[in-house]
Design goal:
Helix content is 3%, strand content 40%. With 767 residues, the chain is mostly beta strands. The termini are far apart.
Length: 767
């Protein structure tokens, strides 16, 4: 028998598929394979215990693919001699050959610098691509470097018993990198080491599933550190628009990692370091499938961002971008300049994409996001402990799924911001003037705050119940519900914090077409949004419609929720709704501001806002600039809902309640400042059962079907300042009965009340 085993061998790229059980050897990559019915399978031998290095370099510095014969291993080592200068390396003991060394990478291990061998003039001389990186005495390594980090990582032993370094040259590596499947023995380390003298950039997305050390690397794409990974970060940086770090798991929602130290450079707040927690904000994007949202694959996070460099219809053009189908096709596009949305429908080139709506113009900023399709999934993606300002940004569509917010705690004074999107503005312009809220002469009632634009010719009440926003100039940022309008004047519900003037630009939005939570298509008793034992929640720019349950928004069990510039309308006729916003069980509402509450004809909505069960509802001037129209009772404060002694109801406009405009009872209290309550069917205000109402400044209580104010059963009315008018009510201006305490003409102004100014039975008192 011959003393030989025949093994098929050759370059890896040309290695044939072996028969089942046949051994094969790739002579260039030094890998052994075994033929199987499913193709060649690499043989894995017991890992050695000698530390080794795998070299990776850009093609400009001599890196090649494994298919082209690269192995990642050192070919020759030595020391440069005197005579080394510029692009010449001289080694008197060298054994250089063109066949072995031409076009290979050369690494200066002394200075941590790289070049490519461009010529082999002799056995002792090399010419390299980068001048001045070698000096006499420097140690060099000529290596068959791989050109991608994934190939370098794959070359490492699967089960390693030595310290392995994947040493990477300067330059940019674009491949996605998945680090998985390598297990260490005897406390050994697998490292990916970038350049310490210039920058090694990984611009592909990185997913980490295992123990690894990452050193001197700059990441410009998202890094996912999956649950169970153990990563040692040394001098690593995330930069650019995409670079950030997440912990990700199938059982744990995507959250910012809280146990690594990583240097960041891309955040708007310019934070430079995170240690035990991240305290900088981020956004989760929500859009229906029309705009690219997908609960199955979306993580809600930004993929990239930039600015359009030119304008083209139904296109996003950005010559600095690198658009591609893998990352961007069918994803959500958000115009953060105009607050508009679209879906990416085609990748035209690396600098241009086609989009579903014509929303981008030159200079406008954008975000491409891997959006989820429901607010609930956006909420679920927020970690249980919130240690930074967190925003759920929603497209202006019908997000027809009920939302439950619970089990979130906060490590500091942070908020969860649930933000809708306003529609395209209905009207815009520059004001010619504005006026502040004031009281007229006795009996004339309040003069509402206004914005005037004499260049307009609006239809009367064309913008009633819409939202006015001051977008620039004096008073910029203020949002107010429009109570009514004439041809040139908008009257707002509430007061101005800063009265607009001729520098003030404005827009009018039909908030009925803002982001919607409309449950018309659902059945059962769903509420639109519920908060259970939740603090620091802010909801803004939503339209709540057609909810099935008793409440649109339900805040209970010590919750604290704010609503800004939202619209609540009960359109359903198949059941009675109890309240638009229900606050109970020791909860509080720090702000309900610039909101519109409206009942459609033929429906039955009992209350706009109800506070009960010992909740602290209206603290510190915090229900303000609201309009309520047509509900049975506009605001109800009951059952020991105590408030503090600061003004807490400012700028209410309550019109045509079907029973009471304001009902305060059961040991509760409310304060009123610059409020208009008019046209209630029964009483404009009811105060009973040991409750108290404090009137501060400039309130109008008018045109009720019966008494303007009814005080009953130990109720108390107190007036701190002048200016409140109680006018033209169908009963008494103020009627105090059953051991109650009212206020007389000396502090209130009464005009035209059918039954007279005020009355008190024998048990009650007016002063």
């Amino acid at each position: 028998m011959a003393n030989k085993i025949q093994i098929r061998r050759g370059a890896q790229a040309s290695l044939p598929t072996g028969d089942s059980g046949e051994p094969l050897l790739a002579t260039d990559s030094e890998r052994a394979y075994l033929g199987t019915p499913n193709g060649n399978k690499e043989l894995q031998f017991k890992a050695g215990s000698t530390n080794y290095t795998i070299y990776v370099a850009t093609t400009a510095l001599g890196g090649l693919t494994a298919g082209a014969g690269a192995t990642g291993k050192a070919i020759l080592t030595g020391t440069a001699d005197t005579g080394t200068s510029g692009t010449t390396i001289y080694d008197a003991a060298g054994t250089f050959t063109s066949a072995a060394h031409l076009n290979k990478a050369i690494y200066n291990a002394t200075q941590d610098k790289w070049a490519k061998i461009t010529d082999v003039p002799s056995g002792t001389n090399l010419t390299v691509s980068v001048s001045g990186i070698f000096a006499a005495g420097d140690t060099y390594v000529i290596t068959s470097a791989l050109s991608t980090i994934p190939e370098g990582f794959a070359t490492a032993d699967v089960g390693y018993a030595a310290d392995i370094t994947v040493r990477v040259s300067p330059g940019t590596f674009t491949d996605a990198l998945t680090l998985i499947g390598k297990t260490a023995g005897a406390a050994k380390t697998l490292s990916v080491q970038g350049s310490t003298t210039t920058t090694t950039t990984i611009s592909g997305e990185v997913s980490i599933y295992q123990k690894i050390a990452l050193k001197n690397l700059t990441f410009t794409k998202r890094i996912f550190e999956y649950f169970g990974a153990d990563v040692d970060w040394t001098a690593c940086v995330t930069s650019g628009d995409d670079g950030f770090l997440l912990l990700k798991s199938t059982s744990v929602a995507n959250v910012f990692r809280t146990s690594s130290v990583v240097v960041f450079e891309n955040d708007p707040s310019s934070y430079t370091n995170i240690s035990s927690t991240i305290t900088t904000g981020y956004t989760i994007y929500v859009a229906t499938s029309t705009y690219g949202g997908d609960d199955a694959v979306g993580d809600g996070l930004k993929i990239t961002q930039g600015s359009a460099t030119s304008t083209s219809a139904n296109k996003l053009v950005d010559t600095t971008a690198n658009f591609n189908s893998t990352d961007h096709l069918n994803k959500t596009l958000y115009n953060s300049t105009d607050d508009t949305w679209a879906k990416i429908t085609a990748i035209d080139s690396t600098a241009q994409v086609s989009i579903s709506a014509d929303i981008m113009a030159s200079g406008e900023a954008y975000v491409i996001a891997n959006a989820v399709a429901t607010i609930q999934n956006g909420v679920n993606l927020i970690p249980g402990v919130v240690n930074c300002e967190t925003t759920i940004k929603c497209s202006n569509e019908n997000l027809a799924v009920k939302v439950l917010v619970q089990n979130k705690s906060f490590s500091g004074a942070y908020n969860i911001n649930i933000r809708g999107t306003l529609p395209v503005a209905t009207e815009s312009g520059t004001a010619t003037s504005g006026t502040a809220y004031a009281m007229g002469g006795a009996g004339s009632g309040a003069t509402q705050a206004t914005l005037v634009d004499t260049a307009k010719a609006w239809g009367v009440n064309a913008y009633q119940n819409m939202l006015l926003k001051i977008t620039g100039g004096t008073g910029s940022g203020q949002e107010r519900v429009i109570d009514s309008n004439t041809a040139t004047t908008i009257k707002i519900a509430g007061v101005w914090a800063t009265t607009p003037d001729a520098t003030s630009t404005y827009r009018v939005y039909d908030i009925n077409n803002a982001s919607r939570i409309d449950l018309a298509a659902l059945s059962g008793s769903e509420m639109a949004i519920e908060f259970a034992n939740q603090k620091n929640i802010i909801v803004k720019h939503f339209n709540f419609e057609n909810w099935h349950g008793d409440y649109a928004a339900y805040s209970h069990d010590f919750s604290m929720v704010s609503f800004y510039s939202c619209r609540f309308e009960r359109s359903r006729t198949d059941r009675t709704a109890q309240s638009c916003i229900q606050i109970e069980a020791f909860s509080s509402a720090p702000h309900i501001e610039s909101c519109m509450f409206h009942e459609s004809a033929g429906t039955s909505l009992n209350r706009a806002i109800r506070v009960q069960q010992s909740s602290s509802a209206i603290e510190g001037d915090n229900i303000k600039n609201i309009k309520i129209q047509g509900t049975a009772q506009a605001i109800v404060i009951a059952a020991s809902s105590f408030q503090n002694y600061t003004a807490n109801g400012t700028g209410w406009v309550i019109r045509n309640a079907r029973t009471f405009g304001l009902n305060v009872n059961s040991f509760s209290r409310a304060d009123m400042d610059s409020c208009i309550i008019t046209g209630s069917t029964t009483y404009n205000i009811s105060c009973a059962q040991h409750a108290m109402i404090i009137f501060r400044n400039n309130n109008e209580i008018s045109s009720a079907g019966s008494d303007g104010i009814r005080i009953d059963s130990f109720g108390l009315i107190h007036h701190l300042n002048t200016g409140t008018q109680i006018n033209n009510n169908g009963g008494w201006g103020l009627n105090a009965i059953n051991l109650s305490y009212g206020s007389t003409v000396s502090t209130f102004s009464y005009t035209g009340n059918t039954s007279g100014t005020y009355t008190a039975d024998a048990s009650s008192k007016n002063t």
